[in-house]
Specification:
Distance between the termini: 26 Å
Radius of gyration: 18 Å
Number of domains: 2
Number of strands: 16
Helix content: 10-25%
């Protein structure tokens, strides 16, 4: 949990936010470049409660999609376009001790080839490639350092159709117990390039660039974090006012893990958990 991922985020979000002349630049997408974190998905133990929390926090609209006789996939939308989703955790997930959490999907050109390559690089396959109706094809992987992520081959569902504006995903960060192993794995799997913090920096941080696009970061898990906590990916959602959104999250039953904190010339961020315990970050771009 750190300010690290946001040091360079300012430039990225400027491109997606209002211009200096006040013209709105819409951060909407009809496809995603392979290697992009394209879909944040909440796995929760209280779907109804989580839907209420996030809709109140981000102002998301809701489109419930039936996925079984009694189950739905809660699609969150902005301007009628999907930005995220939530589902109820499966019994096997709970039995394995998995807490409520955010899943992070990476777009790939071919899921089967990505899984094969990931295995060659030392990943474990939690769920082999399978079709999600006509939406796409996916698999669930665990990197060599223990972080779980999803790979997604889009068909009718590309993932988030809006990124990098208030209410949408703006950054995804890996907190890991082995940064060197993680860097080797992800750069070879997705073709990301790594940029490290300069010598003498107050903290070590790695920013990954995907074919010219930022949006991904990595840092070592703090030594104060209990040893049983595995490596993990965490989403950052942009908000108009970090302090107000953090306060609202608390009012709605969330908990503040890291209070609103300034990052010089970049913005302000906080880390919170929802009422069920899923952790995510909030970020506000600094004003000119």
């Amino acid at each position: 949990m750190s300010v690290g991922p946001l040091v360079r985020l300012r430039v990225k979000l400027r491109r997606a936010g209002p211009s200096r002349k006040g013209e709105s630049v819409v951060a909407e997408f009809s496809s995603h470049t392979p290697g992009t974190f394209s879909w944040p998905e909440l796995a929760t133990t209280d779907q109804k409660g989580a839907v209420s929390f996030y809709r109140s926090l981000f102002g998301w609209d809701l489109n419930e999609q039936p996925i079984g006789p009694t189950e739905t996939y809660s699609m969150f939308q902005m301007r009628g376009k999907e930005v995220s989703a939530a589902y109820s955790m499966r019994p096997e997930e709970r039995q394995n001790g998995a807490p409520p959490h955010w899943n992070s999907y990476v777009t790939v050109a071919n899921v089967d080839e990505a899984v094969k390559r990931a295995q060659e690089l030392g990943a474990k396959v939690f769920a082999p490639p399978f079709d999600v109706m006509d939406a796409g094809r996916m698999a669930v992987l665990q990197d060599p350092t223990g972080a779980v992520f999803q790979v997604w081959q889009a068909n009718k569902h590309i993932g988030a159709k809006i990124l990098n504006e208030p209410g949408a995903l703006c950054w995804t960060e890996l907190n890991t117990r082995d940064t060197k192993a993680a860097e080797t794995f992800y750069t070879h799997l997705f073709g990301w390039t790594a940029k490290h913090s300069p010598p003498g920096s107050p903290m070590e941080y790695t920013e990954f660039n995907n074919q010219g696009h930022p949006g991904i970061g990595m840092m070592a898990i703090n030594e104060h974090v209990p040893a049983h906590v595995p490596s993990y990916w965490m989403p950052y959602f942009q908000v108009a006012d970090c302090d107000a959104s953090t306060g609202k999250a608390k009012e709605l039953g969330g908990s503040i893990m890291v209070p609103p904190t300034d990052i010089s010339k970049t913005g302000r961020f906080s880390i919170v958990t929802d009422p069920q315990g899923a952790m995510f970050a909030l970020f506000t771009l600094a004003r000119e």
